[in-house]
Amino acid sequence: VAAQNCRKRKLNKILNLEEDVRNLQTQKESLEKEHCQCSKSISWMKQKLNNLYCDIFSRLRDDQGRPINPCQYVIHCSSDRSVFVIPKHLVRSEQKQNNEKEQKQK
C-alpha cells in the first residue's frame, strides 16, 4: 500500500509538472507575440519621430534665412514642454558634465 501511494504521488507530481510546462509554454508564446507587437510599435514610433524631426528641420532657418543643418543641431524638449533647437556641441558638453557629476557622486 505504501509503495502504491508513493507511485500515485509520483504520478501526480509528474502530471502537475507537465501541466506547468504547458502553461509556461502558452505564457511564453503569448509574451513572444506581445514582444513582437511592441517591437513593431516602437519601430513605427521611431519612424514617425524621424519623419517629424525631418519635417521640423526642413522648416527651420537661421538668421540669414538658410536652412539649419540637422547634423549640427538637435531638438531638445524640456520637462515644461518647451522645445529648443540646440547646437550638438553644447549638448555633448552638457552630457559630459552630467556624466562627471554622476561619477563624482558614486
Automatic annotation (TrEMBL):
Source organism (scientific name): Corythaeola cristata (Great blue turaco)
PANTHER family given in the database record: NUCLEAR FACTOR ERYTHROID 2-RELATED FACTOR, NUCLEAR FACTOR ERYTHROID 2-RELATED FACTOR 3
Entry keyword Oxidoreductase: no
Coiled coil: 7-34
Gene coding for it: Nfe2l3
InterPro entries per UniProt: bZIP, bZIP_sf, NFE2-like
One term of GO molecular function: DNA-binding transcription factor activity, RNA polymerase II-specific
The BZIP domain, residue ranges: 2-49
Gene3D superfamilies reported for this sequence: 1.20.5.170
Entry keyword set: Coiled coil
Annotated SUPFAM superfamilies: Leucine zipper domain
Lineage, top ranks: Eukaryota, Metazoa, Chordata, Craniata, Vertebrata
Superkingdom per UniProt: Eukaryota
Protein name, entry field: NF2L3 factor
GO cellular component annotations of the record: nucleus
